[in-house]
Design brief:
This protein is mainly alpha-helical. It contains 15 helices and no strands.
Length: 362
């Protein structure tokens, strides 16, 4: 997008085009994931995302891409992810004993982080060497690889739920979600945290392009984030704490570090170091959070509760993506980043100060 129009606002629109349908269809995806075999839901989503990203790659490679086409295709990919994500959370407990859920979530996080590091490095290299179109083509192929490995899983038979209306399914999931204070408080914190984090995504890419050295600088920062996630995954394999959500929430303040470093006009390698700390903290928190959900929410409602989690967590992210560019134009890039930094620290404080979050035991 920056090559196509050079506009931070347009970049935010394309990011938002993927996120808005993701948020919109998450609750529907959660119901489908509890009603249908979860692997089937995930396989279908992978095929759709492969097709959408493949079409984006073709448009970029043929130099015929228009903004509206990229927006539509990203909306399709986001809709597919709305079905994949809740099914993924519900699938994990079907593959492992309850005692090993934290290690399973940590290993899943490690897999995502390690391929994220390799993928970001390769993607950045491909963009620099031959252009973004080929990087997008590799991205499309990765969904085919995901579908292949999903097909190899040996899973217990799908347990069918009692017949009831779609609305009844949604209300049942809502009751499970809203009856646990620690769940909705963490989701509320994530909603604002992700909105503020989207400011880093948009402005980080723009600052890298304009003053830190171009796409390679942004790649270095993203690799730092990925390496941090990888290290956080290793820590999650072994960490044992009596109050996991309190410990995990106390790490969320680290997410503000790379934002502050960007605001201070730090070099790319310094921002990458801050991103490493941020990625590690976020990975540890996510492993502990998913384990808490899987241990404390009934299996039959887990995908629906996960859908409410994803829905709430991402609800304000499109707003952050869309407003990041205009806010930077109105108040200045550094001021916008400082606001996001302060807000992130406030969100972490809210989570840690909630009694039910502090008291939940693993």
């Amino acid at each position: 997008m920056l090559d196509l129009t050079g506009s931070a606002t347009d970049l935010g629109y394309v990011f938002a085009a993927k996120t808005i349908p993701l948020v919109t269809f998450l609750l529907i995806g959660g119901v489908f994931a509890d009603r249908l075999p979860r692997r089937t839901v995930m396989l279908t989503a992978d095929v759709v995302r492969m097709a959408a990203q493949g079409a984006v790659a073709a448009l970029v490679l043929t130099h015929s891409a228009h903004i509206w086409e990229l927006v539509v295709l990203q909306a399709i990919a986001g809709t597919a992810s709305a079905f994949f994500n809740p099914a993924s959370t519900g699938l994990t407990p079907m593959t492992i004993s309850p005692e090993r859920l934290q290690q399973a979530n940590a290993l899943r996080g490690l897999a995502m982080a390690s391929t994220g590091v390799v993928g970001t490095a390769i993607g950045g290299g491909v963009v620099v060497a031959v252009g973004p179109g080929w990087a997008l083509a590799v991205d499309a192929a990765s969904f085919a690889a995901s579908a292949y490995f999903l097909a190899q899983l040996r899973l217990p038979a799908h347990v069918k739920l009692e017949p009831q209306s779609f609305l009844a399914d949604l209300l049942e999931g809502w009751r499970e979600f809203s009856s646990r204070t620690w769940v909705w408080v963490i989701v509320l914190a994530a909603a604002f945290g992700n909105m503020l984090g989207s400011v880093f995504v948009v402005l980080g890419a723009v600052i890298s392009q304009r003053s830190l050295g171009g796409p390679l600088a942004w790649t270095v920062i993203l690799v730092g984030l990925g390496v941090g996630s990888l290290l956080g995954g290793f820590v999650s394999l072994h960490v044992r704490v009596r109050r996991p959500l309190f410990f995990g929430s106390s790490l969320l303040g680290f997410l503000a570090i790379p934002m502050a470093l960007l605001a201070l006009h730090a070099p790319a390698v310094v921002v990458a170091a801050g991103a490493l700390l941020s990625g590690g903290a976020n990975m540890i928190f996510n492993s502990l959070w998913e384990t808490a959900l899987q241990k404390n929410v009934p299996a039959a409602a887990l995908s629906r509760v996960s859908a409410y989690d994803w829905f709430g967590s991402l609800a304000f992210q499109p707003l952050g993506l869309v407003l990041a560019g205009p806010a930077a134009a109105a108040f200045g890039t550094s001021a916008t980043l400082w606001i996001a930094t302060a807000g992130t620290v406030a969100v972490a404080t809210l989570a840690v100060s909630t009694a039910s979050v502090r008291q939940l035991e693993g």
